[in-house]
């Protein structure tokens, strides 16, 4: 399962392979591949799998309070759009409908409160305006189901 903080649910919509450092970008590309293969996302509070290569760097902003605020704003907006609560411990999969819905709302500016003052916002705006061309996260080919031994399967949110 890919561990993501709230605002990274927005960032992944426009990820085209750019990042803070080569290690950060390599890691993010691997995460994009995992998500595109249908791996589930677990929402976490604080630094996540995308942050991992930055945590030992003095310029890392992953633990700053304002980043935590971005996480909260993103989760509120995305939960409202998707129609179910999201918070640490929530699990979801980016199927085709969900990814299209998120990208449509992102392009319309409906879920971008967390993007305020982000250094990547101009790039993300351009990528959305260009129809998310060249983004590296794609919808999983088929729905993934959560299964518990001896219990009927149920789709992940």
UniProtKB/TrEMBL annotation:
Pfam entry (one): DUF1284
* Protein name from the UniProt record: 2Fe-2S ferredoxin
């Amino acid at each position: 399962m890919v561990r993501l903080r709230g605002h990274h649910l927005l960032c992944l919509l426009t990820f085209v392979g750019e990042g803070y450092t080569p290690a950060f970008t390599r890691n993010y590309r691997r995460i994009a591949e995992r998500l595109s293969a249908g791996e589930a996302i677990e929402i976490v509070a604080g630094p996540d799998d995308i942050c991992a290569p930055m945590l030992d760097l003095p310029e890392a902003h992953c633990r700053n309070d304002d980043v935590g605020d971005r996480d909260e704003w993103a989760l509120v907006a995305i939960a409202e759009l998707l129609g179910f609560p999201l918070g640490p411990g929530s699990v979801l999969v980016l199927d085709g409908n969900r990814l299209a819905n998120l990208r449509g709302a992102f392009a319309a500016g409906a879920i971008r409160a967390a993007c305020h003052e982000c250094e990547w916002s101009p790039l993300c705006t351009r990528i959305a305006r260009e129809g998310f061309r060249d983004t590296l996260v794609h919808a999983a080919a088929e729905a993934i189901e959560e299964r518990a031994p001896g219990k009927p399967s149920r789709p992940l949110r």
